[in-house]
Amino acid sequence: MSIELFLYLADVVPRFGNLAFLIAMISGIASGMGLAMFVVEDQEVGKSVVKIALPIAILFVVVHVVIPSRQTMYLMAGASVAKEAVNSTTGQKVRQLVEQELDKLLEKK
Known about the structure:
Elements: H1 3-40, H2 43-66, H3 70-87, H4 89-108
Helix pairs in contact: 1-2, 1-3
């Protein structure tokens, strides 16, 4: 995946997490209302509402938790770019040069 696409997704994906949280809250409220209906009034309708709304609420809470934040996605992008830089031929040359210079400095002591 290109870094440009990843940075775009870093801006867009957290919005789905917010949407999932909103849906989870609405479903949670519906579950609570269904539970109240079950206890107070019509047990069948309340039971049906809870059977539908509670799994939806749980599912979207899990989705909200799993979707990374924008900051986490930027950190992932930075780690990916750094890994590519280190593994490139120039990165390998720089690493060898730094190691040689460190070895020279350690030998002098």
